Amino acid sequence: MSEGTQFTLEQFCRYASQGKLMGGKCRKCGKIHFPPRPLCDGCFSKDFEWVEISTKGKLMTYTVIHVAPMQFQSIAPYAVGIVELDNGLKIPGIIREASLEQLKIGMPLTMMFEACATTGQWPQWPRYYFKPA
Amino acid sequence: MSKFGKLEGLYAREIFAQAAKEAYDRCPKLDPKKDIKALFVGHMGESYEHQGHTGPTVADWAGLLHVPATRTEAACASSGAALRAGIYAVLSGLYDVVMVGGVEKMTHRSTAEVTEYLAMASDYPFEQWNGITFPGLFALMATRHMNDYGTSEKDLAMVAVKNHYHGSMNPKAHIQKEITLESALSSRVVAWPLKLYDCSLITDGASCIILTKPELAAKYTDMPVHIIGSGQASDTIGLYERQSLTSLAAAKIAAKQAYEMAGVKPEEIDLAEVHDCFTIAEIIAYEDLGFCKIGEGGKLVESGETKLGGRIPVNTSGGLKSKGHPVGATGTAQAYEMYLQLTSQAERRQVKDAEVGLTHNLGGSGATAVVHIYRRA
Fold it and tell me: pTM value?
Protein backbone atom coordinates (compact mmCIF):
# COMPACT_ATOMS: atom_id res chain seq x y z
CA MET A 1 0.00 0.00 0.00
CA SER A 2 2.88 2.36 0.70
CA GLU A 3 4.48 1.85 -2.71
CA GLY A 4 4.99 5.15 -4.46
CA THR A 5 3.20 7.23 -1.86
CA GLN A 6 4.70 9.83 0.41
CA PHE A 7 3.82 10.11 4.06
CA THR A 8 2.35 13.58 3.76
CA LEU A 9 -0.83 15.46 4.62
CA GLU A 10 -1.69 15.56 0.93
CA GLN A 11 -1.61 11.78 0.70
CA PHE A 12 -3.64 11.59 3.94
CA CYS A 13 -6.31 13.67 2.19
CA ARG A 14 -6.22 11.47 -0.94
CA TYR A 15 -6.97 8.45 1.23
CA ALA A 16 -9.75 10.40 2.96
CA SER A 17 -11.30 10.96 -0.50
CA GLN A 18 -11.49 7.15 -0.72
CA GLY A 19 -13.19 7.02 2.68
CA LYS A 20 -10.08 5.76 4.46
CA LEU A 21 -8.48 7.22 7.57
CA MET A 22 -4.77 6.45 7.30
CA GLY A 23 -1.73 6.96 9.50
CA GLY A 24 1.97 6.31 8.93
CA LYS A 25 3.54 3.59 11.07
CA CYS A 26 7.29 3.82 11.62
CA ARG A 27 8.86 0.53 10.56
CA LYS A 28 11.79 1.09 12.93
CA CYS A 29 10.18 2.03 16.25
CA GLY A 30 6.53 1.20 15.59
CA LYS A 31 5.12 4.63 16.41
CA ILE A 32 1.98 5.48 14.45
CA HIS A 33 1.98 9.05 13.18
CA PHE A 34 -1.46 10.46 12.77
CA PRO A 35 -1.56 12.66 10.82
CA PRO A 36 1.35 11.11 8.91
CA ARG A 37 4.69 12.87 8.78
CA PRO A 38 7.80 12.18 6.69
CA LEU A 39 10.25 12.00 9.64
CA CYS A 40 9.62 9.94 12.77
CA ASP A 41 9.85 12.33 15.73
CA GLY A 42 10.70 9.41 17.99
CA CYS A 43 13.63 7.72 16.21
CA PHE A 44 14.20 9.94 13.11
CA SER A 45 13.51 7.08 10.72
CA LYS A 46 12.01 7.84 7.30
CA ASP A 47 10.77 4.29 6.77
CA PHE A 48 6.98 4.04 7.14
CA GLU A 49 4.02 1.90 6.19
CA TRP A 50 0.39 2.99 5.92
CA VAL A 51 -2.02 1.65 8.52
CA GLU A 52 -5.77 2.12 8.51
CA ILE A 53 -7.13 3.90 11.58
CA SER A 54 -10.53 3.14 13.10
CA THR A 55 -13.15 5.77 12.29
CA LYS A 56 -14.93 5.11 15.57
CA GLY A 57 -14.10 6.83 18.80
CA LYS A 58 -15.34 8.78 21.77
CA LEU A 59 -15.69 12.49 22.43
CA MET A 60 -12.98 13.95 24.69
CA THR A 61 -14.19 17.56 24.71
CA TYR A 62 -16.36 19.88 22.63
CA THR A 63 -17.49 23.43 21.98
CA VAL A 64 -20.07 25.15 19.82
CA ILE A 65 -18.60 27.90 17.67
CA HIS A 66 -20.88 30.91 17.26
CA VAL A 67 -18.34 33.50 16.04
CA ALA A 68 -16.82 31.77 13.02
CA PRO A 69 -14.05 32.58 10.55
CA MET A 70 -15.35 33.89 7.24
CA GLN A 71 -15.20 30.53 5.47
CA PHE A 72 -17.41 28.91 8.12
CA GLN A 73 -19.93 31.66 8.79
CA SER A 74 -22.59 30.02 6.62
CA ILE A 75 -22.73 26.94 8.88
CA ALA A 76 -22.40 28.69 12.29
CA PRO A 77 -23.21 27.85 14.99
CA TYR A 78 -21.53 24.46 14.67
CA ALA A 79 -20.14 21.95 17.16
CA VAL A 80 -16.52 20.83 17.10
CA GLY A 81 -14.76 18.37 19.33
CA ILE A 82 -11.62 16.36 19.87
CA VAL A 83 -12.23 12.67 19.38
CA GLU A 84 -10.12 9.82 20.73
CA LEU A 85 -10.29 7.03 18.17
CA ASP A 86 -10.47 3.39 19.19
CA ASN A 87 -6.68 2.93 19.05
CA GLY A 88 -6.01 5.99 21.21
CA LEU A 89 -5.11 8.42 18.42
CA LYS A 90 -6.82 11.80 18.57
CA ILE A 91 -8.27 14.09 15.92
CA PRO A 92 -10.45 17.21 15.98
CA GLY A 93 -13.53 17.56 13.83
CA ILE A 94 -16.95 19.09 13.31
CA ILE A 95 -19.79 17.14 14.95
CA ARG A 96 -23.11 17.04 13.15
CA GLU A 97 -26.51 15.69 14.03
CA ALA A 98 -26.17 16.49 17.73
CA SER A 99 -27.42 19.55 19.64
CA LEU A 100 -25.42 21.15 22.46
CA GLU A 101 -27.67 19.38 24.97
CA GLN A 102 -26.94 16.01 23.34
CA LEU A 103 -23.16 16.45 23.38
CA LYS A 104 -21.50 14.59 26.23
CA ILE A 105 -17.86 13.83 26.97
CA GLY A 106 -17.38 10.12 26.37
CA MET A 107 -20.20 9.75 23.82
CA PRO A 108 -19.41 7.40 20.90
CA LEU A 109 -18.92 9.06 17.50
CA THR A 110 -18.28 7.84 13.97
CA MET A 111 -16.29 9.66 11.32
CA MET A 112 -17.91 10.33 7.95
CA PHE A 113 -16.29 11.62 4.76
CA GLU A 114 -17.65 14.08 2.21
CA ALA A 115 -16.58 16.60 -0.42
CA CYS A 116 -15.31 19.97 0.82
CA ALA A 117 -18.28 22.04 1.97
CA THR A 118 -16.61 25.43 2.31
CA THR A 119 -15.75 27.86 -0.42
CA GLY A 120 -12.97 30.30 -1.06
CA GLN A 121 -9.25 29.84 -0.95
CA TRP A 122 -9.16 26.97 1.47
CA PRO A 123 -8.21 23.54 0.20
CA GLN A 124 -10.82 21.69 -1.73
CA TRP A 125 -9.70 18.35 -0.35
CA PRO A 126 -12.40 15.96 0.84
CA ARG A 127 -13.45 16.62 4.41
CA TYR A 128 -14.51 14.49 7.31
CA TYR A 129 -16.92 15.09 10.14
CA PHE A 130 -18.27 13.17 13.11
CA LYS A 131 -21.79 12.13 13.99
CA PRO A 132 -23.19 10.18 16.95
CA ALA A 133 -22.54 6.45 16.50
CA MET B 1 3.95 51.39 26.93
CA SER B 2 1.51 53.15 24.62
CA LYS B 3 -2.09 53.61 25.58
CA PHE B 4 -3.89 50.36 24.76
CA GLY B 5 -7.18 50.70 22.93
CA LYS B 6 -8.69 51.60 19.61
CA LEU B 7 -5.98 53.90 18.32
CA GLU B 8 -7.58 55.23 15.18
CA GLY B 9 -5.45 56.84 12.53
CA LEU B 10 -2.19 55.35 13.77
CA TYR B 11 0.03 52.77 12.15
CA ALA B 12 1.82 50.13 14.25
CA ARG B 13 5.16 51.88 13.77
CA GLU B 14 3.70 55.13 15.12
CA ILE B 15 2.26 53.37 18.16
CA PHE B 16 5.60 51.69 18.82
CA ALA B 17 7.32 55.10 18.73
CA GLN B 18 5.05 56.21 21.60
CA ALA B 19 6.14 53.25 23.73
CA ALA B 20 9.80 53.84 22.85
CA LYS B 21 9.56 57.52 23.81
CA GLU B 22 8.21 56.63 27.26
CA ALA B 23 11.03 54.12 27.75
CA TYR B 24 13.62 56.77 26.82
CA ASP B 25 12.00 59.28 29.19
CA ARG B 26 12.12 56.76 32.03
CA CYS B 27 15.87 56.26 31.48
CA PRO B 28 17.10 59.86 31.40
CA LYS B 29 20.74 58.81 31.62
CA LEU B 30 20.41 56.60 28.53
CA ASP B 31 21.48 57.93 25.13
CA PRO B 32 19.28 55.72 22.90
CA LYS B 33 21.23 56.28 19.68
CA LYS B 34 24.55 55.55 21.33
CA ASP B 35 23.62 52.95 23.93
CA ILE B 36 20.92 50.74 22.40
CA LYS B 37 22.76 48.16 20.33
CA ALA B 38 19.90 45.97 19.11
CA LEU B 39 16.12 45.75 18.94
CA PHE B 40 13.92 42.67 19.16
CA VAL B 41 10.26 43.32 18.43
CA GLY B 42 7.34 40.93 18.76
CA HIS B 43 4.72 41.23 16.04
CA MET B 44 2.32 38.50 15.09
CA GLY B 45 0.54 39.37 11.88
CA GLU B 46 1.54 41.07 8.67
CA SER B 47 -2.07 40.67 7.50
CA TYR B 48 -3.37 43.51 9.70
CA GLU B 49 -1.49 46.30 7.91
CA HIS B 50 -0.12 44.37 4.96
CA GLN B 51 3.24 45.04 6.58
CA GLY B 52 5.88 42.53 7.49
CA HIS B 53 9.55 43.19 8.21
CA THR B 54 8.57 44.89 11.44
CA GLY B 55 12.07 45.01 12.95
CA PRO B 56 13.61 47.72 10.80
CA THR B 57 10.28 49.53 10.42
CA VAL B 58 9.78 50.17 14.12
CA ALA B 59 13.53 50.63 14.76
CA ASP B 60 13.53 53.54 12.32
CA TRP B 61 10.39 55.09 13.82
CA ALA B 62 11.90 54.70 17.30
CA GLY B 63 14.94 56.68 16.19
CA LEU B 64 17.21 53.65 16.10
CA LEU B 65 18.05 53.55 12.40
CA HIS B 66 20.76 51.01 11.53
CA VAL B 67 20.61 48.96 14.76
CA PRO B 68 20.21 45.24 14.14
CA ALA B 69 16.43 44.96 14.38
CA THR B 70 14.71 41.59 14.35
CA ARG B 71 11.08 40.61 14.58
CA THR B 72 10.22 37.66 16.79
CA GLU B 73 7.02 35.77 16.03
CA ALA B 74 5.50 33.33 18.48
CA ALA B 75 1.82 34.23 18.02
CA CYS B 76 0.53 35.94 21.18
CA ALA B 77 3.89 35.28 22.89
CA SER B 78 5.79 37.22 20.22
CA SER B 79 7.12 39.85 22.61
CA GLY B 80 7.65 37.33 25.42
CA ALA B 81 9.95 35.71 22.87
CA ALA B 82 11.48 39.14 22.09
CA LEU B 83 12.25 39.55 25.79
CA ARG B 84 13.91 36.13 25.79
CA ALA B 85 15.89 37.06 22.67
CA GLY B 86 17.05 40.25 24.38
CA ILE B 87 18.15 38.25 27.39
CA TYR B 88 20.14 35.94 25.09
CA ALA B 89 21.80 39.00 23.54
CA VAL B 90 22.76 40.57 26.88
CA LEU B 91 23.71 37.40 28.77
CA SER B 92 25.83 36.19 25.85
CA GLY B 93 27.94 39.29 26.37
CA LEU B 94 27.36 40.51 22.83
CA TYR B 95 25.59 43.74 23.87
CA ASP B 96 25.34 45.81 27.03
CA VAL B 97 21.98 47.40 26.22
CA VAL B 98 19.14 46.23 23.97
CA MET B 99 15.52 47.22 23.52
CA VAL B 100 12.79 44.58 23.42
CA GLY B 101 9.16 45.21 22.72
CA GLY B 102 6.14 44.38 20.67
CA VAL B 103 3.33 45.94 18.69
CA GLU B 104 0.06 45.09 16.98
CA LYS B 105 -2.52 47.22 15.18
CA MET B 106 -5.77 45.27 14.98
CA THR B 107 -8.91 47.32 15.50
CA HIS B 108 -9.24 48.59 11.93
CA ARG B 109 -10.05 45.02 10.88
CA SER B 110 -13.45 43.32 11.23
CA THR B 111 -13.96 40.71 13.96
CA ALA B 112 -14.20 38.03 11.26
CA GLU B 113 -10.86 39.10 9.78
CA VAL B 114 -9.17 39.22 13.19
CA THR B 115 -10.65 35.82 14.06
CA GLU B 116 -9.15 34.40 10.88
CA TYR B 117 -5.73 36.07 11.36
CA LEU B 118 -5.47 34.87 14.96
CA ALA B 119 -6.45 31.36 13.91
CA MET B 120 -3.29 31.28 11.79
CA ALA B 121 -1.43 30.58 15.03
CA SER B 122 -3.26 27.25 15.32
CA ASP B 123 -2.83 24.07 13.31
CA TYR B 124 -3.98 24.68 9.74
CA PRO B 125 -4.77 21.23 8.33
CA PHE B 126 -6.82 19.97 11.27
CA GLU B 127 -7.86 22.89 13.48
CA GLN B 128 -8.40 25.83 11.11
CA TRP B 129 -9.66 23.44 8.46
CA ASN B 130 -12.38 22.29 10.83
CA GLY B 131 -13.45 25.84 11.66
CA ILE B 132 -11.90 25.83 15.12
CA THR B 133 -11.24 29.40 16.19
CA PHE B 134 -9.02 30.60 19.06
CA PRO B 135 -11.96 31.02 21.40
CA GLY B 136 -12.89 27.53 20.18
CA LEU B 137 -9.57 26.02 21.23
CA PHE B 138 -9.77 27.50 24.72
CA ALA B 139 -13.45 26.50 24.89
CA LEU B 140 -12.34 22.90 24.24
CA MET B 141 -10.05 23.21 27.29
CA ALA B 142 -12.81 24.85 29.34
CA THR B 143 -15.39 22.14 28.60
CA ARG B 144 -12.96 19.47 29.74
CA HIS B 145 -11.84 21.45 32.81
CA MET B 146 -15.48 21.90 33.83
CA ASN B 147 -16.10 18.19 33.32
CA ASP B 148 -13.03 16.98 35.21
CA TYR B 149 -12.85 19.49 38.07
CA GLY B 150 -16.30 21.02 38.41
CA THR B 151 -15.10 24.44 37.26
CA SER B 152 -18.19 26.53 36.49
CA GLU B 153 -19.15 29.23 34.01
CA LYS B 154 -19.40 31.47 37.08
CA ASP B 155 -15.72 30.77 37.93
CA LEU B 156 -14.80 31.83 34.40
CA ALA B 157 -16.89 34.99 34.67
CA MET B 158 -15.24 35.84 38.00
CA VAL B 159 -11.86 36.07 36.23
CA ALA B 160 -13.36 38.64 33.87
CA VAL B 161 -14.97 40.62 36.71
CA LYS B 162 -11.70 40.67 38.68
CA ASN B 163 -9.59 41.75 35.72
CA HIS B 164 -12.02 44.50 34.74
CA TYR B 165 -11.89 45.73 38.34
CA HIS B 166 -8.09 45.91 38.09
CA GLY B 167 -8.25 47.47 34.62
CA SER B 168 -10.59 50.18 35.92
CA MET B 169 -7.55 51.49 37.82
CA ASN B 170 -5.15 51.39 34.86
CA PRO B 171 -5.20 54.63 32.85
CA LYS B 172 -3.60 52.83 29.90
CA ALA B 173 -6.15 49.98 29.79
CA HIS B 174 -8.39 49.59 26.77
CA ILE B 175 -11.60 49.28 28.83
CA GLN B 176 -11.30 51.03 32.20
CA LYS B 177 -14.65 49.91 33.43
CA GLU B 178 -15.91 47.38 35.94
CA ILE B 179 -18.37 44.73 34.84
CA THR B 180 -20.87 42.70 36.85
CA LEU B 181 -20.99 38.94 37.17
CA GLU B 182 -24.50 39.00 35.70
CA SER B 183 -23.45 40.92 32.59
CA ALA B 184 -20.50 38.56 32.07
CA LEU B 185 -22.67 35.47 32.41
CA SER B 186 -25.37 36.82 30.11
CA SER B 187 -23.06 38.08 27.36
CA ARG B 188 -23.44 36.42 23.99
CA VAL B 189 -21.82 33.08 23.30
CA VAL B 190 -18.64 33.17 21.21
CA ALA B 191 -17.64 29.50 21.55
CA TRP B 192 -19.64 27.72 24.24
CA PRO B 193 -18.93 27.77 27.21
CA LEU B 194 -16.97 30.95 26.47
CA LYS B 195 -18.97 34.12 26.14
CA LEU B 196 -18.00 37.57 24.95
CA TYR B 197 -16.83 38.60 28.43
CA ASP B 198 -14.63 35.50 28.68
CA CYS B 199 -12.60 36.76 25.71
CA SER B 200 -9.75 39.25 25.70
CA LEU B 201 -10.06 42.38 23.62
CA ILE B 202 -9.06 43.21 20.07
CA THR B 203 -6.73 46.10 20.80
CA ASP B 204 -4.06 48.33 19.31
CA GLY B 205 -0.93 48.97 21.31
CA ALA B 206 2.81 48.74 21.77
CA SER B 207 5.12 48.13 24.69
CA CYS B 208 8.84 47.99 25.20
CA ILE B 209 11.48 47.74 27.87
CA ILE B 210 15.21 48.35 27.93
CA LEU B 211 17.46 45.52 29.06
CA THR B 212 20.96 45.73 30.41
CA LYS B 213 23.33 43.82 32.66
CA PRO B 214 22.62 44.12 36.40
CA GLU B 215 25.97 45.79 37.05
CA LEU B 216 25.28 48.47 34.43
CA ALA B 217 21.66 49.25 35.37
CA ALA B 218 22.55 52.12 37.73
CA LYS B 219 24.34 53.85 34.85
CA TYR B 220 21.02 54.28 32.99
CA THR B 221 18.26 54.44 35.59
CA ASP B 222 17.62 54.98 39.28
CA MET B 223 14.70 52.55 39.16
CA PRO B 224 15.76 49.23 37.68
CA VAL B 225 13.94 45.92 38.12
CA HIS B 226 15.88 42.67 38.11
CA ILE B 227 14.80 39.83 35.83
CA ILE B 228 15.92 36.83 37.87
CA GLY B 229 14.35 33.94 35.99
CA SER B 230 13.49 33.16 32.39
CA GLY B 231 11.93 30.11 30.77
CA GLN B 232 10.46 29.25 27.41
CA ALA B 233 9.11 26.03 25.97
CA SER B 234 7.14 24.75 22.99
CA ASP B 235 4.53 22.08 22.40
CA THR B 236 2.59 20.54 19.50
CA ILE B 237 0.92 23.15 17.31
CA GLY B 238 -2.34 21.19 17.51
CA LEU B 239 -4.15 21.10 20.84
CA TYR B 240 -5.62 17.74 19.88
CA GLU B 241 -2.21 16.03 19.89
CA ARG B 242 -1.40 16.88 23.51
CA GLN B 243 -1.63 14.54 26.45
CA SER B 244 -3.65 16.95 28.57
CA LEU B 245 -6.55 19.17 27.54
CA THR B 246 -6.67 20.93 30.91
CA SER B 247 -3.02 21.87 31.46
CA LEU B 248 -0.36 23.35 29.17
CA ALA B 249 2.87 21.37 29.25
CA ALA B 250 4.88 24.22 27.70
CA ALA B 251 3.78 26.58 30.47
CA LYS B 252 4.72 24.07 33.16
CA ILE B 253 8.16 23.50 31.60
CA ALA B 254 8.82 27.23 31.11
CA ALA B 255 7.72 27.92 34.69
CA LYS B 256 10.01 25.21 36.04
CA GLN B 257 12.97 26.70 34.16
CA ALA B 258 12.19 30.20 35.41
CA TYR B 259 11.64 29.13 39.02
CA GLU B 260 14.91 27.17 39.01
CA MET B 261 16.90 30.02 37.47
CA ALA B 262 15.42 32.51 39.93
CA GLY B 263 15.77 30.17 42.89
CA VAL B 264 12.23 30.94 44.05
CA LYS B 265 9.16 28.82 44.67
CA PRO B 266 5.57 29.53 43.58
CA GLU B 267 4.70 30.46 47.20
CA GLU B 268 7.23 33.29 47.03
CA ILE B 269 5.54 35.05 44.11
CA ASP B 270 3.80 38.23 45.30
CA LEU B 271 1.98 39.05 42.08
CA ALA B 272 1.67 37.79 38.52
CA GLU B 273 0.57 38.87 35.08
CA VAL B 274 -0.78 35.79 33.32
CA HIS B 275 -2.00 35.27 29.78
CA ASP B 276 -5.78 35.58 30.20
CA CYS B 277 -6.54 35.53 26.48
CA PHE B 278 -9.65 33.72 27.66
CA THR B 279 -10.82 33.40 31.26
CA ILE B 280 -10.14 29.65 31.31
CA ALA B 281 -6.52 30.37 30.40
CA GLU B 282 -6.05 32.30 33.66
CA ILE B 283 -7.55 29.44 35.68
CA ILE B 284 -5.25 26.93 33.96
CA ALA B 285 -2.30 29.32 34.46
CA TYR B 286 -2.88 29.32 38.25
CA GLU B 287 -2.50 25.54 38.17
CA ASP B 288 0.40 25.34 35.71
CA LEU B 289 2.36 27.97 37.67
CA GLY B 290 1.79 26.23 41.00
CA PHE B 291 -0.35 28.97 42.58
CA CYS B 292 -2.86 26.26 43.51
CA LYS B 293 -3.31 22.52 43.07
CA ILE B 294 -4.33 21.05 39.72
CA GLY B 295 -8.09 21.42 39.28
CA GLU B 296 -8.44 24.12 41.93
CA GLY B 297 -8.02 27.19 39.70
CA GLY B 298 -11.75 27.91 39.78
CA LYS B 299 -11.74 27.82 43.57
CA LEU B 300 -8.72 30.15 43.68
CA VAL B 301 -10.46 32.91 41.75
CA GLU B 302 -13.62 32.41 43.82
CA SER B 303 -11.58 32.81 47.02
CA GLY B 304 -10.58 36.34 46.02
CA GLU B 305 -6.91 35.54 46.64
CA THR B 306 -5.94 36.63 43.12
CA LYS B 307 -7.67 40.00 43.45
CA LEU B 308 -5.82 43.15 44.49
CA GLY B 309 -5.46 42.90 48.27
CA GLY B 310 -5.45 39.09 48.12
CA ARG B 311 -2.60 36.64 48.70
CA ILE B 312 -1.34 36.76 45.11
CA PRO B 313 -2.93 39.44 42.94
CA VAL B 314 -3.05 38.32 39.30
CA ASN B 315 -3.35 40.68 36.35
CA THR B 316 -3.32 43.94 38.27
CA SER B 317 -2.93 45.69 34.90
CA GLY B 318 -6.37 44.42 33.92
CA GLY B 319 -4.78 41.61 31.95
CA LEU B 320 -5.53 40.86 28.34
CA LYS B 321 -9.19 40.97 29.32
CA SER B 322 -9.42 44.63 30.31
CA LYS B 323 -6.08 46.23 29.50
CA GLY B 324 -6.40 44.65 26.06
CA HIS B 325 -4.49 42.21 23.89
CA PRO B 326 -2.59 43.73 20.98
CA VAL B 327 -1.07 40.31 20.51
CA GLY B 328 2.51 41.20 19.62
CA ALA B 329 2.69 43.76 22.43
CA THR B 330 1.32 41.62 25.24
CA GLY B 331 4.49 39.89 26.50
CA THR B 332 6.47 43.05 27.13
CA ALA B 333 3.33 44.85 28.38
CA GLN B 334 3.25 42.24 31.14
CA ALA B 335 6.91 43.04 31.89
CA TYR B 336 6.00 46.76 31.92
CA GLU B 337 3.38 46.12 34.62
CA MET B 338 6.05 44.30 36.67
CA TYR B 339 8.31 47.32 36.22
CA LEU B 340 5.58 49.63 37.56
CA GLN B 341 4.67 47.34 40.45
CA LEU B 342 8.23 46.56 41.54
CA THR B 343 9.22 50.25 41.45
CA SER B 344 6.04 51.27 43.34
CA GLN B 345 4.64 53.27 40.43
CA ALA B 346 1.36 51.38 39.95
CA GLU B 347 -0.65 54.00 41.83
CA ARG B 348 -4.18 52.89 42.71
CA ARG B 349 -3.51 49.28 41.74
CA GLN B 350 -0.16 49.04 43.56
CA VAL B 351 0.40 45.70 45.28
CA LYS B 352 1.60 46.48 48.79
CA ASP B 353 5.13 45.23 49.57
CA ALA B 354 5.51 43.57 46.15
CA GLU B 355 8.99 42.08 45.94
CA VAL B 356 8.83 39.19 43.45
CA GLY B 357 6.60 39.03 40.38
CA LEU B 358 6.01 36.62 37.52
CA THR B 359 4.81 36.98 33.93
CA HIS B 360 3.28 34.15 31.89
CA ASN B 361 2.84 34.70 28.16
CA LEU B 362 1.27 32.10 25.85
CA GLY B 363 1.43 31.73 22.10
CA GLY B 364 -1.49 30.09 20.35
CA SER B 365 -3.25 27.43 22.36
CA GLY B 366 -0.04 26.90 24.33
CA ALA B 367 2.41 25.76 21.65
CA THR B 368 4.64 28.53 23.02
CA ALA B 369 4.93 29.59 26.65
CA VAL B 370 7.31 32.18 28.08
CA VAL B 371 7.68 32.76 31.82
CA HIS B 372 9.78 35.44 33.53
CA ILE B 373 10.39 36.21 37.19
CA TYR B 374 11.28 39.68 38.46
CA ARG B 375 12.59 41.05 41.75
CA ARG B 376 12.51 44.56 43.18
CA ALA B 377 16.00 46.09 43.01
Answer: 0.96
